[in-house]
Write a structure and sequence with these properties.
Elements (H helix, E strand, L loop, with lengths): L9 H29 L27 E8 L5 E7 L4 E9 L8 E11 L5 E9 L2 E5 L11 H16 L21
Antiparallel strand pairs: 1-2, 2-3, 3-4, 4-5, 5-6
InterPro entries: CHIT_BIND_RR_consensus, Cuticle_Struct_Prot, Insect_cuticle
Keywords: Cuticle
Pfam families: Chitin_bind_4 (PF00379)
Length: about 190
């Protein structure tokens, strides 16, 4: 059997080379066009990182003198401190360890107060206690919860009265689980 040979015209081979070279030229042209479009517009850079950055400073303020200062720490862990400044700020605090040596009942107890003058000239004083019950602050300027309306208080009293005389509410008991029974497939 004779082997057949196919001849490809030279013009087709040359055309494929031309298309391949045009593809690479087209890709290079697209890359140049993309970099030209990405250039900052109107000759202004987006941000000049080399420029001197502004330095923000506060205007000088007068030094506030400390009129009184006391700080005492005892070996048992109790402490107290107080201070008073020339611009009317004062604070004092005492703290000690409550139920010392009793595991799971030890609690740091702190009592203190601070006062200052508000920008509108109102004197502000806060007295606080912090212990196992949390932080509790008191002051004339602090908001207070509104009183409970009479209707709601009456219904709360009625609920409390009916709960006292009601029989014991059954305690939740989980339903029995059937894990110990053999598994039946059919």
């Amino acid at each position: 059997m004779r082997k057949r040979t196919y001849y490809v015209p030279l013009s087709l081979v040359v055309a494929e080379d031309i298309v391949a070279s045009y593809k690479s030229t087209l890709i290079c042209l697209c890359a140049v066009l993309a970099s030209a479009v990405a250039k900052p517009q109107f000759g202004k850079p987006a941000y000049n990182y080399r420029a001197q950055q502004p330095v923000y400073t506060q205007p000088p303020q007068a030094v506030v003198p400390i009129l009184a200062y006391s700080n005492d720490v005892s070996p048992d862990g109790s402490y107290s401190y107080s201070y008073q400044t020339g611009n009317g700020i004062s604070a004092q605090e005492q703290g000690y360890l409550k139920n010392s040596g009793i595991k799971d009942q030890e609690a740091e107890t702190v009592q203190g107060s601070y006062s200052y003058t508000a920008p509108d000239g109102t004197p502000i004083t806060v007295t606080y206690t912090a212990d196992e019950n949390g932080y509790q602050a008191q002051g004339a300027h602090l908001p207070v919860a509104p009183p409970i309306p009479v209707e709601i208080q009456r219904s709360l009293d009625l609920i409390a009265a009916t709960q006292r005389g009601a029989p014991n509410i059954p305690v939740y008991k989980p339903q029995p689980q059937f894990f110990n029974r053999p598994f039946n497939r059919f």
